[in-house]
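LOG
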Amino acid sequence: MISLKKYINLTKNVKNWPHYFYAKHIDGKQNPVVFRADNDIVIEVPRGNIMAIFKEIFMEDLYDIRFLKHHLKSDPVIVDIGANVGFFSLFMAAQMPGSKILAFEPLPANFGHLQRHFQLNADKGLICQNKAIAGTKGTVELYFNPDAGFTALASVHTAFDGSNTGRVEVEAVTLPDIFSQFGIGTLDLLKLDCEGAEYDILYRCPDPLLSRVKLIAMETHSGTGANENTRAMCRFLEQKGFMFKTGSNGFVWAWR
């Protein structure tokens, strides 16, 4: 049943969906695999571990698009923190053509492909920056697997996945910085997938500004502190006036 739903989503979300099977079973050398979604969105998916992220978003409906659409207006302002190569941003641009999307990705390799994606879809008004988002402005040191090329994992925690760990220092800005730079009045959707930085980002966000965030979709990751876990995050969000629901693998949706 899960596999069937996944392929039904593929046919709904990808206009040239037969190409997925062609690239998978017939032309295994095609790299990247190019897909097209609604709103004339073009997606280039490099082969390797990054294909799994494409599948999570476009086929497995990781972020529950029906739920997001239910809580969003037709022209939402969306901030994508931990954008990776841009699959979530592109998915939302395809699903909601009136969106204004700001995407932030700290790892240079990932950001290069994110930038490529936004250039391929230049008429959609997508904006990306090669920055980390943190609780305080300055620089942060991220740990990642340098052998992976594109990677879904980069963390503020040392050797977080037990792999060969590389380090990179990147510029960090805060959520208030984003509101200020882009003149955001109301942030309709805040998406976070930032491997442990979500606690610092939200816990340090001033209440008046956090009250202007209407919907949050994020993956939480267990950290070293007592308040760095899914339960603590949900308790925090409830105290700040959000309703919430949880899903598997630490997923949290919160809304006002």
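LOG (cont.) second protein
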Amino acid sequence: MFFKHKDKRVEIIYQNIVEISRSKFFYINLKLNDNFETRFDLIIFHAFIIFFYYKNLSIKKSDISQNLFDHMFSDFENNLREMGFGDVAVNKKMKVFISAFYGRIAQYSKGIEIYRSKSDKSLLHQAILNNIYKGGNISDHYIEYFIFYMEENINHFIKKDELENLKDGFHNISIRYEI
């Protein structure tokens, strides 16, 4: 994926998403497997928070979401190439990644909307269980943490204006280390 100019804000936002997604907290305290698939899912989870913020922004829509998507998938493609995959394999894997991305975003969107409007966590709970924990046998306590974490960070960004969020590259994602 090629884009004409690089938006430094998007690079900073993406770097912050990746940095937070690599936090040992998730793998140690929340019992996640430290593998490529889980890291991918945490990046999508954190990107969703930013996408949700922009989707619900009441002022002029920004091109940040599209640029973030482009940057993120360009990075995924570059990582595949660095791992030694050829053009055909990269194209196949990218199709899988894009499909997985849209599926997860749709599940998180629907889940958080129902949670926010009806206080029903069940769909969001299932989305987190399926996507982050791969449907495994895990304590509801960990899934509840992710729901709290998502809601807390969405609210955190909504309380600030877009300029403040962009200025710090959405770096102030709040990880509450006690669960």
